[in-house]
Write a structure and sequence with these properties.
The chain is α+β, with helices and mostly antiparallel strands. It contains 16 helices and 24 strands. The structure holds one RNA strand.
Length: 594
RNA sequence: GGGGGUGUAGCUCAGUUGGUUAGAGCGAUCGCCUGUCACGCGAUAGGUCGCGGGUUCGAGUCCCGUCACUCCCGCCA
């Protein structure tokens, strides 16, 4: 017991009847009846109703105190009469008869209401984040986040993982995202970089013989924000294991995710053994490598249909003859949907920057026909072929898009989500996890046409190491995998390449010579040549996991002190200008603004 | 870097075809009210309609520019 409180605002019940107690907290709400005043006192734990009437000398003072002021109340616990019990409150069976009070912290007029479910402007919320965080919903989200992190820590320790910290000031790496840079005072003209992830360090931890590592790791990437992507910084459950194959990583992560999601959500997990989908299949069937498997719709390739003589849809035929692809989405039993349903989706696609979506519905009178604006261009034979490819039946409809492969993948993926949403096909009470596997090691840069790493340059290529087909690098697959839940990419990982000679070869395919690799990845390559164990790992994103568990669409709702979209902290005023002196010490000068 | 949305009182929002003095709810201040739990009732204060320019007899409303916030594309191995 201390001078501020004997109990918190959630723990008093009728068992405490007649006790003298002290509570401290914020004034959540006042209900002033003139000669009788109710005060809802709030702290982290809950609410307790306190009462005072005009016979008490403190009445007048208490009546005037601003909401959200912090006060200490001395009083007695009183059982409420039956008709005044509030069953919504944990403490609803009792109230506090106020004997005296003390003002601990005054409060100015509030820039926004605390006790309200109303949404208000992000700018104000971020500027007054300390007030925003008092609100129930976000307060609970942040507590959830804390509990999730504790749970993960315990679980990882149970599984014999060791938690280590790795440096925050490290070196810039040429691959991947833009680095945040920190000038070095002691080394003029040189810069540290904040880690985009502790990738190289965790591999070094394995080379150092620690076997299993994890860290709730801050990661820094200087890229533009999205609703599910904080600008600047975010957290990963970074983990790495020695002497493992892909399956070993999958086992650990599946166990962790299933126990975590079961513990913190009542939603159903569809497959506790997460299905594995190859990158190639995922791109074809879902148009993306982060499919929402709650969505039953799937995409088919109809490109060949548009090479047939008996299909007269010339716009698509012309595009196909020039190398474009046609992808379709089938919707079941939609023949009675109004014209507006189809046209809205076409209109939506145009707004998304596509050339629109063609559609028709399969009908049968004497023969199979296609009903819809472009239906007349298809012969019965071609329609039968389409039905075979897409497993369509009479009464189903089909949407299709034509374009360059990556364009058509993108729009069909978006359309798959959009149509499912319009048809209400997604069960919001499920979690559907999957692994995306067999990522290609390399890809062609769209602009420069050069071969580059498609994901992590340190991933192990698949197949017999002695017989890797370096002449056709685009065919090389990697032991590289992503975990996806409800269309949200939670993490990516890989079995690492621990063989320096192989590393040099792969880097040379991406246009780095030996000298360059030695320069840029000195620590890494050097370490791998002193007896490195085969190893691999993964790094699930903490923020996104909490988003899924809290059922939030925006990452700021699960981040205590987030920055806005322009990577500014409106509360702390970061980034800010620095003094001439600081610049001088760092050996920096700023370009003059034009 | 590009596209969309939003911007009116401290907060959330309404504001018709361009037309008199720009409204409501919450909050604030003052008054009344002894059983509320979104307490109730009455009154008062509170506005550079984001900012700048233009069209017009007249602009919150129309046009051009610009800024801020947000969503998306690019980007994020």
């Amino acid at each position: 017991m201390n001078k501020y409180r004997t109990h918190n605002c959630a723990e008093l019940t009728k068992k405490n009847k007649d006790q003298s107690i002290i509570l401290s907290g914020w004034i959540n709400k006042k209900r002033d009846h003139g000669n009788l005043l109710f005060i809802d006192l709030r702290d982290n734990y809950g609410l307790t109703q306190c009462v005072i009437d005009k016979s008490n000398k403190f009445f007048k003072d208490l009546e005037k105190i601003q909401l959200e002021s912090v006060i200490k109340i001395k009083g007695t616990v009183v059982e409420r009469s039956k008709e005044t019990i509030n069953s919504d409150l944990k403490t609803g069976e009792i109230e506090i008869n106020i004997v005296s009070f003390e003002l601990l912290g005054t409060c100015k007029e509030l820039p926004m209401p605390i006790f309200s479910d109303q949404d208000y402007a992000e700018e104000i919320r971020l500027k007054y984040r300390f007030l925003d965080l008092r609100r129930k919903k976000i307060h609970e989200n942040i507590i959830l986040r804390s509990n999730v992190i504790s749970f993960i820590r315990n679980k990882m320790q149970e599984l014999d993982f060791l938690e280590f910290q790795t440096p925050i000031l490290t070196s810039s790496s040429p691959e991947g995202a833009r680095d945040f840079l920190v000038p070095s005072r002691l080394n003029p003209g040189k810069f540290y970089a904040l880690p985009q992830a502790p990738q190289q360090f965790k591999q070094l931890v394995m080379v150092s013989g620690f076997d299993k590592y994890f860290q709730i790791a801050p990661c820094f990437r200087d890229e533009d924000a999205r609703a599910d992507r904080s600008p600047g910084e975010f957290y990963q459950l970074d983990l790495e294991m020695s002497f493992v194959e892909q399956e070993d990583i999958f086992n650990v992560v599946e166990k962790l995710m299933v126990s975590l999601f079961k513990k913190f959500s009542s939603k159903k997990i569809i497959n506790e053994n997460f299905p594995r989908i190859s990158y190639e299949d995922s791109m074809l069937k879902y148009g993306t490598d982060k499919p929402d498997l709650r969505n039953p719709l799937s995409i088919s390739d109809l490109t060949n249909i548009f090479t047939r003589e008996d299909v007269k849809f010339d716009i698509f035929k012309k595009l196909v003859s020039k190398g474009s692809k046609v992808r379709s989405i089938l919707t079941k039993k939609t023949k009675d949907k109004p014209r507006s349903f189809f046209d809205n989706i076409d209109k939506w696609a145009k707004e998304e920057g596509a050339s629109g979506l063609a559609y028709f519905t399969f009908e049968k009178d004497k023969q199979i026909t296609a009903k819809g604006p472009v239906g007349k261009f298809f012969s019965e034979e071609s329609l039968k072929e389409i039905m075979k490819i897409t497993s369509a039946e009479v009464g189903d409809s089909i949407f299709f898009a034509c374009g360059k492969i990556n364009e058509v993948e993108k729009i069909s993926s978006l359309a798959r989500d959009k149509i499912a949403k319009d048809l209400n096909l997604i069960n919001e009470n499920e979690f559907s996890f999957c692994w995306i596997i067999d990522y290609p090691m390399f890809e062609k840069d769209q602009i420069t046409n050069k071969i580059k790493f498609s994901h992590n340059p340190f991933s192990m290529p698949q197949g017999d190491i002695k017989n890797i087909d370096f002449k056709n690098p685009l065919n090389i697959k990697a032991y590289q995998y992503d975990i996806v839940c409800n269309g949200v990419e939670l993490s990516s990982g890989a079995i690492r390449n621990h063989i320096p000679e192989l590393m040099y070869k792969l880097f040379s395919v991406a246009g780095y010579d030996k000298k360059e690799v030695d320069e840029k990845f000195k620590g890494m390559i050097n370490a791998l040549s002193y007896g490195a164990p085969p190893h691999g790992g993964i790094a699930p994103g903490i923020d996104r996991i909490v988003m899924l568990l809290a059922n939030e669409k925006n990452i700021r709702e699960v981040t205590m002190f987030p920055m806005n979209q322009n990577a500014q902290d409106l509360m702390m005023n970061a980034p800010s200008e620095i003094s001439e002196n600081q610049l001088k010490e760092l050996n920096l000068s700023l370009k003059k603004k034009k």
